[in-house]
């Protein structure tokens, strides 16, 4: 299990540092455990081997991690990566570890942006909330990461998922790209998956990261509790023990239906929990990225 838990990364109160630590910790652990003939190939980042050209060594990473990696430089493996963050009010739900889904989302997308830039990709960020679309167009320059970190740090969750008219700028025909959307998929009329289907039509691959809090997945509440819908404000009082079995059955059915619908539309669907390290999502991103650039 990764020592870099999401709550530890969040406690750094420094998003650029947390993103770098998450990404480099994942890479170090992956290369350390990789076996011959199996595992994920990281197309522009590989361990140093005797005889390699030292001019291609990433000395800064070596100084930070005491591990030696070479940067590959094939231009044709570069890609445009579009990061989308659902910033509706339901993302303010807080897990037992103290993190909201939005906290986790900021950490994960910051780490993905860092990984993508290390791959030589042009990265964009779109933050989706009802107040309007925050969009940073894809740029390959070194100043893009600080722009993305700043936008993520300034993000707050509010309201419902934005109306289609606000999202129109995202659907301008693009070059081939990998779109990564992080959302809890709380929607009224499939508006999130409708947007992603349109993005897939104009851009190509879509990786859908479905994020839920650990206490949502496991229903860890005890006794008499009052639960609130963060988007509508409606509340319900219930006895946790009496409702647990029915809740978990309905949740399992919703997750099955949601995953099936996403995959039927051609998305690469992956479920995440705020109680788990970022590693699974980073692994899925690199796997999907390798397929998209191939």
From TrEMBL:
Residues 44-252 form the DUF58 domain. Coiled coil: none annotated. InterPro entries: DUF58, vWFA_dom_sf. This is DUF58 domain-containing protein. It comes from Hymenobacter daecheongensis DSM 21074.
């Amino acid at each position: 299990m990764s020592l870099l838990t999401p709550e530890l990364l969040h406690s750094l109160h420094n998003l650029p540092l947390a993103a770098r630590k998450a990404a480099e910790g994942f890479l170090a652990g992956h290369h350390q455990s990789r076996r011959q003939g199996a595992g994920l190939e990281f197309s522009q980042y590989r361990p140093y081997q005797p005889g390699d050209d030292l001019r291609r060594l990433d000395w800064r990473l070596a100084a930070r991690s005491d591990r030696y990696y070479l940067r590959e430089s094939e231009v044709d493996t570069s890609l445009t990566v579009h990061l989308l963050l659902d910033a509706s009010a339901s993302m303010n739900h807080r897990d037992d570890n103290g993190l909201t889904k939005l906290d986790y989302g900021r950490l994960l997308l910051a780490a993905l942006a860092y990984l993508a830039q290390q791959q030589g990709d042009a990265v964009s960020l779109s933050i989706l909330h009802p107040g309007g679309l925050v969009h940073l167009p894809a740029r390959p320059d070194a100043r893009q990461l600080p722009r993305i970190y700043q936008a993520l740090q300034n993000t707050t969750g509010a309201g419902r998922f934005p109306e289609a008219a606000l999202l129109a700028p995202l659907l301008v025909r693009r070059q081939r790209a990998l779109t990564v959307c992080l959302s809890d998929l709380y929607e009224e009329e499939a508006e999130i998956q409708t947007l992603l289907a349109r993005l897939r039509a104009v851009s190509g691959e879509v990786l859908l990261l479905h994020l839920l809090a650990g206490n949502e997945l496991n229903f860890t509440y005890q006794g008499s509790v009052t639960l609130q819908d963060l988007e509508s404000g409606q509340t319900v009082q219930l006895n946790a023990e009496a409702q647990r079995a029915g809740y978990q059955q309905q949740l399992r059915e919703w997750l099955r239906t949601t995953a099936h619908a996403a995959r039927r539309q051609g998305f690469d669907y992956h479920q995440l929990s705020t109680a788990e390290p970022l590693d699974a999502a980073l692994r899925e991103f690199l796997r999907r990225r390798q397929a998209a650039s191939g």
